[in-house]
């Protein structure tokens, strides 16, 4: 009988711990994410969506801009999953690579910009909790995570370019390198 009682208590404690974490987030991270979303939407409205779209089109022509700068700006301004909408400014040949880079950036920027991908913040917070227990600052971790992420996102985009070229040859398909916007 004691085993059943222990299992029942453990089961309830699991949900109580989840509720405690949820209430802590409601008092800390949720308001922060909400304020960041409001700030980003305000900046987009002040700059203008047309100007942001022009920046995206120009970024498509350069690999560093395409896989480092554009995913950063898109993630920062639009957050995940809207960052992927900027892929419409990519030529067909570079859309897979942009998507790969933008998707990776949504994870590696979470520590310093939690509004980008709040649904996956638990991954960073799990790592940060271990860092915090060691007495090390979380901001250093967040900045390093972001910087390493930028480099890895570029490499991921570039490798996807190579993979896309390989698949083009294998399938006998030629993807366009010109941007074609449909209204």
TrEMBL record:
Pfam families referenced in this protein's UniProt entry, alphabetically: EII-GUT
One BP annotation, GO: phosphoenolpyruvate-dependent sugar phosphotransferase system
Domain of life per record: Bacteria
Keyword Magnesium: no
Transmembrane segments: 25-44, 64-83, 145-167
One GO CC annotation: membrane
Keyword set, alphabetical order: Membrane, Transmembrane, Transmembrane helix
Presence of the UniProt keyword Transmembrane in the record: yes
InterPro entries assigned: PTS_IID_sorb (IPR004699)
PROSITE patterns cross-referenced by the UniProt entry: PTS_EIIC_TYPE_5 (PS51107)
PANTHER family: PTS SYSTEM GLUCITOL/SORBITOL-SPECIFIC EIIC COMPONENT (PTHR40399), PTS SYSTEM GLUCITOL_SORBITOL-SPECIFIC EIIC COMPONENT (PTHR40399:SF1)
UniProt protein name: PTS system glucitol/sorbitol-specific transporter subunit IIC
Organism: Salinicoccus halodurans
Name of the gene encoding the protein in the UniProt record: srlA
